[in-house]
Design brief:
Length: about 400
C-alpha cells in the first residue's frame, strides 16, 4: 500500500485491545525531583465483543426491518464459531437492536434504545421502566429528569427506553421481560400508543402510568393516567384575552390533534360562552401538524395563515411555548409587534425561555414536580390509588405579551 509523502510508516497490526495506564512503582511515593514512569497495560477485547461491535456498525447502516443473513453465514463472514455468533445475536435481541421471528429469521428493529443497564443493584427496590418518544422536547426531557431524580430517592433502578416512530413496542416488552424485579412502567407524554400495546401493557401485571390522556381508561385494570388540566388551560387562555378586551382572536393549534387538544378547545368554548363571544368568529389556520413534526415551525406557519386571513386579529391563543415562539416571528414578519398589535398567550414552560423572549410570554402551566410525584406514587403505592385519572391544575403566569385593551379604553 502506498503512503503520502512525509507520512510515518504504518506500525505492524496488533490485536484489538483497550489500553490502561498505571504508574510504575505505584506502591511507593515518588521521590523529589524524580520523573514518574508509566507502564501501558493492554486489556484484550474478546472476539465476541469485536464481532458484536462490527455487527452493530453494519446494523446501523441498514434499514429498519431488514432481515439478516442466516446465523451460520454470519459466523463464516465474521470468522467466529456458530456458538459465538449465537451469543452475539442473543445479546443484540435483548438490547432491542434485533428481533427474532420463528420460521422467518432475524430482523433489524426500529431504533428504540435502552439508556440504562437492566442490572439490578443489590440494594435497589426494583426497576422502573420509562418509555419516551425518540425526539427532543425540553418538556419531555425535564419530566424524564425529574422522574429519574425521584426514582433515585426511592431507591429504584431506572431503565430508560427511547421509542422510534415506527416502533411496534416489542422492544419495550422484551426489555420489561428482562427486568429482574419490575415495579412499574411510565410512558412519557407525546407518545401515541396503539391499542394493542396498551392491552399488552395492562397485561404486564405491574402498575402502568401514562403521562397524558387516554381514551376509555376504564377498560384497563393496571393503567393510570396523570395529565395537566387541559380544559382549565384552554379556559384560562381564552378568558385572559377576552377580559383584556380582545374580540378578534386567532387559535394556533401547533401540537398534533389529541385528547389534550380537544379538552383545551372545550375549555376555550366555555370561556367564549361566559363572555358571550361567538366561537365562529375565532380565526383558524388551514394547516395542521402530525406527530413527530416541529411545533415551533408549525406555530410560525399557522400564525402567518391566521394573520393573512384576518389582518385585524389582536390576540392569539397558542397551544405551547415552541408554537408561541414561532408565532412571535410571524407577527414580526408581518410588520406588526407583540403586544402592541397582537397579544399572545400560550401554555407550558420551556427551560425558562418564555421569560427571556421579547416580549416575555404569558402562559398557563401545571407543576412538573407534581405530575412526576403523582406518577411515582402510583407506581410505589398501587393499592392506595383507586382513581384511574389524576388531573393537575393549571396556574396563569402574567408577563409582557398581553395588551389590556379595556384599560386603554377607559377615560
Amino acid at each position: 500500500m502506498s503512503r503520502l509523502p512525509g507520512a510515518p510508516a504504518a506500525e505492524p497490526s496488533r490485536p484489538a485491545s483497550t489500553p490502561s495506564v498505571k504508574p510504575s512503582g505505584s506502591g511507593s511515593a515518588p521521590r523529589t525531583g524524580s520523573k514518574e514512569h508509566f507502564i501501558m497495560i493492554a486489556t484484550p477485547v474478546s472476539p465476541r465483543s469485536q464481532v458484536k461491535e462490527a455487527l452493530l456498525e453494519s446494523i446501523r447502516r441498514q434499514d429498519v426491518g431488514t432481515r439478516l443473513a442466516p446465523e451460520r453465514r454470519l459466523a463464516e463472514e465474521f470468522g467466529v464459531s456458530r456458538s459465538t455468533m449465537t451469543k452475539v445475536l442473543e445479546e443484540l435481541v435483548k438490547e432491542g437492536y434485533l428481533s427474532r421471528r420463528i420460521g422467518s429469521g432475524t430482523f433489524i428493529m426500529p431504533r428504540d434504545s435502552e439508556i440504562a443497564s437492566t442490572r439490578l443493584p443489590v440494594r435497589a427496590r426494583g426497576e422502573l421502566l420509562i418509555a419516551s418518544p425518540d425526539f427532543f422536547s425540553y418538556s419531555l426531557w425535564e419530566r424524564l429528569h425529574t422522574l429519574e431524580i425521584g426514582a433515585m430517592r426511592e431507591n429504584l433502578q431506572v431503565v430508560n427506553m427511547k421509542i422510534h416512530p415506527e416502533s411496534d413496542f416489542d422492544s419495550l416488552f422484551e426489555l420489561a421481560d428482562n427486568c429482574r424485579n419490575l415495579l412499574g412502567i411510565i410512558v412519557n407524554a407525546g407518545l401515541p400508543t396503539p391499542k394493542s400495546a396498551l392491552k399488552r401493557l395492562d397485561e404486564t401485571g405491574v402498575p402502568v402510568v401514562i403521562i397524558g390522556e387516554l381514551d376509555n381508561i376504564k377498560l384497563y385494570r393496571n393503567i393510570r393516567t396523570v395529565s395537566s388540566n387541559h380544559f382549565q388551560s384552554g379556559y384560562l387562555k381564552m378568558k385572559t384575552l377576552l377580559q383584556a378586551g380582545h374580540t378578534r382572536i386567532g387559535f394556533i393549534p401547533n401540537d398534533p390533534p389529541s385528547i389534550a387538544q380537544q379538552e383545551c378547545i372545550r375549555g376555550m368554548k366555555e370561556a367564549v360562552r361566559e363572555y358571550r363571544f361567538r366561537w365562529r368568529d375565532l380565526v383558524l389556520p388551514d394547516s395542521s401538524i402530525e406527530f413527530w413534526q416541529d411545533p415551533m415551525k408549525n406555530g410560525c406557519v399557522q400564525a402567518r395563515e391566521v394573520l393573512k386571513r384576518a389582518p385585524d386579529v389582536t390576540g392569539l391563543v397558542v397551544d405551547t411555548i415552541p408554537g408561541a415562539i414561532g408565532a412571535l416571528r410571524a407577527v414580526l414578519e408581518s410588520g406588526r409587534s407583540c403586544p402592541g398589535d397582537v397579544s399572545i398567550i400560550t401554555a407550558q414552560s420551556y427551560a425558562g425561555i418564555e421569560e427571556y423572549t421579547y416580549p416575555s410570554l404569558s402562559t398557563v402551566i401545571a407543576s412538573n414536580e407534581k405530575i412526576c410525584r403523582t406518577a411515582l406514587e402510583i407506581i410505589l403505592q398501587p393499592k392506595r390509588t383507586l382513581s384511574r385519572e389524576f388531573i393537575i391544575d393549571m396556574e396563569f403566569i402574567a408577563r409582557e405579551s398581553i395588551r389590556d385593551l379595556n384599560a386603554e379604553r377607559q377615560p
